[in-house]
Design goal:
Elements (H helix, E strand, L loop, with lengths): L11 H23 L31 H12 L2 E6 L2 E6 L2 H10 L29 H14 L8 H17 L6 H17 L9 H12 L17 H6 L4 H24 L3 H7 L5 H4 L3 H22 L1 H15 L14 H13 L9 E2 L4 E3 L2 E3 L4 E4 L1 H5 L42 H18 L1 E4 L5 E2 L2 E2 L17 E4 L1
Parallel strand pairs: 2-6
Antiparallel strand pairs: 1-2, 3-6, 4-5, 7-10, 8-9
The structure holds protoporphyrin IX containing FE.
Length: 490
């Protein structure tokens, strides 16, 4: 499949129309901003001063690894930080206490998703992750929950085992070592087989490529302030005129992800979950989700973070191998039933999820009514971003937080908290619906790689006198870790 970026070409009529729309949109914003009405005298939470009365913080929000900036800002302004982007109110939640209160206890009023996604700019407007909280979402979420709840995920074990073994075999037969492509193969193939019942044999097939392209193109999409421009009245008309090249380039990619496997699966009719989703409504296309292939990216991000961490911390790898050899015997490959007897491997998994969460600022929640928190006012329609990074890098709870240290998760009684406490999977009612399948996929991949491989640093891994700069290996939007830096010796 070749995906072509269509160059922006507007004729003069389009341009005149576009300018007219822009002017009318700006005047509406101006009026709105001048008449910002509040039915309360309560203040907004603290935040950096607004640089411009009309625009608020528009264009000033950090876009490169912003979770680091927000964590830094919380030292000055407190854990709840407020920004205004045009007329959109944005709140960054930097502590576990805040997310527990605002996304947990207040879940009834803080579990919507931002609407701009639904403004027909993107073909994934009908994805359940971005749909307005309501009847359809409730049904989709129910199906996801039913299909992926803790009690039933063991039905996916055979698929996960088969794909992980294939992955190990590919690595063993290919001396070129590990690449992000092979990891993508692994995660994508597991998710696509589970959701669509299709077998993706090689990364050269359309879907994983398309998923990777979509993530590369959309790396910034979930960052605060990225899509505020979509709240400008009539802006979707400008988008339709082709004003925004990103939409034009990303649309065919998302369509390929959604329609490619969907069409195939319709022919094959083997995907059990797909059939279950179809049963919700006859209008199946509207109720299916384009995320299965994209969520594979999150799993890839976690597994590649694990590989990266092992290449930087050989002592951790040695200790894990010792545990596996002592408990299972040399040359044995771990199974799911071994999980409880391998606490150090479990601690490595927990540390991967803390050290470099795949979505450092989660997925935004939106309030459906005004909230008051500790005397501060959060208007209806506000966007709430949980700074997952800041929670996992809180020095009081995790001393020396940038260090990859699985020991910090080991308790005297040998137990681990429920996976719902892993911040990387989000919070409240909109917590990741696929967390149990993600959890088992990532764990089995980690355990099997540790049992069969030695992960070493390759010579071309760039480092300075102060060591490897970990952040160089992650994108600014947080989605992705480039693993091509490590080699695997079998
Ligand atoms: C490392 C792997 C993964 C991570 C870190 C992750 C993380 C997240 C996060 C942070 C959210 C938003 C939670 C919130 O709003 O607070 C989310 C939502 C979601 N995830 Fe995942 N996810 C992963 C894998 C998966 C997988 C494998 C699936 C599907 C099988 C999945 C399905 C979903 C769905 C359907 C939602 C939307 C839930 C809703 O809006 O109600 N995720 N995920």
């Amino acid at each position: 499949m070749t995906l072509k970026i269509i160059p922006l070409e507007l004729n003069s009529l389009d341009q005149i129309l576009a300018c007219a729309l822009l002017i009318s949109a700006l005047s509406i914003i101006f009026q709105k901003a001048l008449h910002v009405t509040r039915r309360t005298s309560l203040p907004y939470p603290p935040g950096p001063p607004t640089p411009n009365f009309l625009l608020g913080h528009f264009g000033k929000l950090p876009m490169k690894k912003p979770w680091l900036d927000y964590m830094e800002l919380s030292k000055k302004y407190g854990d709840l930080i407020y920004f205004r982007n045009l007329t959109q109110h944005i709140f960054i939640l930097n502590s576990v206490e805040l997310v527990t209160d605002l996304l947990g206890k207040q879940a009834r009023h803080s579990s919507d998703r931002p609407l701009p996604f639904s403004l027909t700019l993107f073909p994934w407007k009908d994805s359940s992750v971005t749909m307005i909280h309501g009847e359809v979402v409730a049904k989709c979420f129910k199906v996801f929950h039913e299909s992926f709840r803790a009690a039933v995920v063991d039905k996916y074990y055979p698929i996960q085992i088969e794909k992980v073994y294939n992955f190990l075999r590919t690595l063993a037969s290919d001396q070129l070592g590990l690449s992000s492509h092979k990891l993508l193969d692994l995660s994508e193939s597991i998710m696509i087989t589970i959701i669509y019942g299709l077998n993706i044999v090689s990364n050269n097939e359309d879907l994983p490529q398309a998923a990777k392209s979509a993530v590369d193109a959309g790396d910034y999409m979930l960052l605060p302030g990225y899509d505020t421009w979509k709240t400008i009245p009539f802006v979707h008309i400008l988008a339709k005129l082709g004003f925004f090249p990103l939409q034009r380039s990303i649309r065919p990619i998302i369509t390929a992800i959604k329609e490619g496997p969907f069409q195939e699966a319709m022919k094959a009719m083997v995907g059990t979950l797909l059939r279950c989703l179809l049963s919700i409504s006859n209008n199946f296309q509207q109720k299916t989700d384009s995320r299965p292939s994209l969520v594979g990216e999150l799993t890839v991000s976690a597994i590649s973070t694990f590989i990266f961490a092992m290449s930087l911390n050989p002592h951790v790898q040695t200790k894990a191998k010792e545990e596996i050899n002592n408990v299972l015997g040399v040359g044995k490959i771990p199974r799911f039933s071994d999980r409880e007897s391998l606490p150090y491997v479990e601690a490595i998994y927990r540390e991967v999820m803390r050290w470099h969460p795949a979505l450092p600022l989660g997925v935004p929640h939106k309030t459906t009514q005004a909230l008051v928190y500790n005397g501060y006012y959060l208007p209806k329609g506000s966007l709430l971003f949980a700074n997952i990074w800041a929670m996992g890098h809180n020095e009081t709870i995790y001393p020396n937080p940038n260090q990859f240290d699985p020991e910090r998760h080991l308790r005297h009684d040998g137990t681990f908290p429920d996976i719902n406490s892993i911040h990387a999977y989000g919070f409240g009612r909109r917590i990741c619906a696929g967390r149990y399948v993600a959890d088992t996929t990532i764990w089995i991949a980690i355990a099997c790689v540790l049992a069969t491989m030695d992960i070493t640093r390759s010579n071309d891994m760039h480092s300075s006198s102060s060591g490897v700069n970990v952040e160089d290996y992650y994108t600014d939007g947080g989605f992705w870790c480039v693993v091509g830096c490590s080699t695997v010796i079998i």
